[in-house]
Amino acid sequence: MYVYVFKGADRIMGFTADVDGNNLPSAQGPWELTNRLNMSKSDDPRPLVDTQACLEDIEMHGFHITNDHRRITDTLEP
After folding, report:
1. Taking the model in full, what pTM does it have?
2. Using one digit for the tens of pLDDT, what is the confidence trace for 22-46?
3. Which residues have a Cβ under 8 Å from the Cβ of 55 and sit 6 or more positions away?
4. Which of 11, 25, 50, 65 has the highest CB neighbour number within 10 Å of its CB?
């Protein structure tokens, strides 16, 4: 699946299947598209994002958010 990578405020990064990033939490934005990755649960680990956690968060929440490459998705207010 294609995952679009967005840079937010400070060291916040957002990952989503939405090419426009419309489902990313506005409090961590503004969001700027920086990359597109082809991800699969069978992929080898990536240096900057945990592929498994990213895809699980996208499945559950619609997005995956990191701060300084640490997962913070569950700490965000809905």
Report:
1. 0.93
2. 999 999 999 999 999 999 989 887 8
3. 1, 3, 39, 40, 41, 64
4. 65
